[in-house]
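FAQ: What does a ligand-bound record look like?

Like this one, built around zinc ion:
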Amino acid sequence: MLPTLPQAHLPLLEQATAARGNALLLTGAEYGGQRALALAVFAALNCTGQRGMGGEACGVCPSCRGLAAGAHPDLLELSPRETTGTGRAARRRIIPVGAVVQSRDDRREYDTHVLEFLEVRPTYARRAVLIRGAEFLGPEAANALLKLIEEPPHGARFLLLAADVRAVIPTIVSRSTRLSVPPLSDAAMHEELARRSGPDDLDPDELVALAAGRPEVLDHAAEVGTALGQAAGFHMALREGMLPTLDAAAELESHWTPWHAEALRSVWRAEPAPARAGLDTALAALERALEAYANPALSFMVFGLAARAALGVDRA
Ligand SMILES: [Zn+2]
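The answer part, i.e. the structure of the complex:
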């Protein structure tokens, strides 16, 4: 399903579609609406129907319908892969050169590389490459991409998303039109939530608090709702005793997603600052342990005990 472009970002769509150059770099927090904006720009480039007042695509022409169905022939979307070195090396996210052009040590991690994709004529107006996590482009991949940005086959466009522009290779930044996508106000987030059909059993205030102005979080309401429920269960168990804590920690382990870390931080924002600081430290240690492939069962146990210590309940 396509992420919904927030009403508050419509003026950005106008700016983005008017931008000159072959590459657009959209920056802002992950889930902040950059992908929705990039897809709206792409939809507008290829729309053959009647476009809206703000330049939005019609939503009903063959190109728009293909995009909504998740099968548009002119769009290639790339994300970083998690690589692991040898042994217990930490996970590292990277977009390797093999994603952009055929490379010598190509392990065909990417089904289609960018050059191959762009050599084919567009089915509609323009082919586009959407790169999530442009800060994870390796130097070789960035160089190969630069050549394509300078002379894109068939007038292709590049839509680059990054959380932190300072982490993007400067030569890429300098050849892109930059737009920063600001967080939405809580009021705007509630309006966006009302436009979507989400799970009924979810407290809208809790969801909006966790989302912190990032509209694409609302597109994951069901997963976030589950994570919030499990985080609240774990938080309650901390005060019930050691055994309930270890049970709840094991339960967290078996369902763990990145949303759970956000849900935990959101659930314990009601705790006094010193306790919250201790809980945050315990969670950061858990995340580091998981990244370094430590034993998950043990890491969650340690996390549960550290969280009880942070609340000062283990000394009772
Ligand atoms: Zn259309």
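Follow-up question: can I read anything off the structure? Yes, for example: Residues 186-311 form one domain.
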